[in-house]
Amino acid sequence: MFTFFGNLFTSIYFQKENILIQGLIFAILALGVYITYKILDFPDLSVDGTFPLGAAVTAVLITNGVNPYLTLPVAFLCGAFAGVLTGIIHVKLRVRDLLAGIIMSTALYTVNLRIAGKANVPFFSKDTIFTLGPIGKLFEGNQIVYGKIILVIIIVVVIKILLDLYLKTRSGYLLRATGDNSTLVTSLGKDKGLVKILGLSIANGLAALAGCIYAQDQAYSDVSMGTGMVMLGLASVIIGTSVFKAIKCMKSTTAVIIGSVVYKLCIALAIAAGLNANDLKFIYSALFLVILVSTRERKKKVKRNA
Q1: Does residue 239 contact residue 287 with C-beta atoms inside 8 Å?
Q2: For 174, how many CA atoms within 13 A lie in the half-sphere containing its CB?
């Protein structure tokens, strides 16, 4: 027993930097999922397509000599545009939210292949945000992992602050109201459909940005990178908002970020303990089912209160 736990914690100890880096990168994705699931009450499956979209765009730009820092806003805008299309399919064409996400995610698979030109695009010999600029100069060789941690923390903190500030604006309050009681938004003379499209745009922009940074961390892009990203984001949101909801002074965005790191730690523990990676798909599916059921109950409660 002691040998088992000793090997387990030894394995986690040597992976702690990568767990933190990936946990923080996926926290950006989780913040996007937080907008759609927790605020908008919209089960957006297009995240599985916008995450690799950001990675594909990044790989193409970097291999063509574009400054890696410029790939960040470009990837965000590409993901935001995909989110707008998802919103248009749902709002204007009156397709159900789940189906709208599935349609966009499926279409993006082909789009990502067209952008990248092939399924896998490596760029190991090219500079990334982790090797270029002040961070790259200060941390070289074996120390680069610490540079990655610092840079990712800076990016996540900036995104969190901007998102918190946005949610306090008039537009942010309308976004919250649309998820809680869309009738109220309509009574205020606002188009709830446009608010949904805006929320989906921001959420998918964050997902693509996460894909951009993840691709630069791994130094390659793969068309199948987005598989399970919705589940990962959901798990992070659930862990963050459920475990830390008792802490009154902690903002939901902070809880989601911590939840993402905790989730990656749990996955690393499960794999180190001998759990087959294929078994995790079943857990993802069960978790997604729980979310859908709880979301439906929440809708019923809101309608009764309205």
Answers
A1: no
A2: 18
Place of tokens 């064409």: 93
The beta-strand segments (E) located in 201-272 are 220-222
Indicate the Cα dihedral angle 150, 156, 162, 164, nearest 10°. -120
Taking phi over 0 as left and psi of -120 to 50 as alpha, with beta for the rest, 175 belongs to alpha
Asked if residue 28 lies in contact with residue 183, where contact means CB atoms within 8 angstroms, the answer is no
* Length of the chain as a residue count: 306
CA 275 vs CA 8, 216, 272, 281, 282: distances in Å? 12, 28, 7, 12, 12
List the end-to-end C-alpha distance of the chain, in Å, as a whole number. 55
Strand partners, 143: none
51-71 pLDDT, tens digit per residue, is 999 999 999 999 999 999 999
Q: How crowded is the C-beta side of 22, counted as CA atoms within 13 Å?
A: 16
Nearest to 136 by CA among 220, 60, 19, 145: 145
- The residues near 194 (Cβ < 8 Å, ≥ 6 apart) are 91
Res 141 pLDDT > 60: yes
pLDDT > 70 fraction of the chain, expressed in percent and rounded: 85
CA torsion sign, 177 to 182 to 187 to 189?
positive
Q: Taking 60 as the threshold, does the pLDDT of residue 301 lie above it?
A: no
Q: Give whole-number Cα distances, 216 to 52, 240, 274, in Å.
A: 12, 26, 29
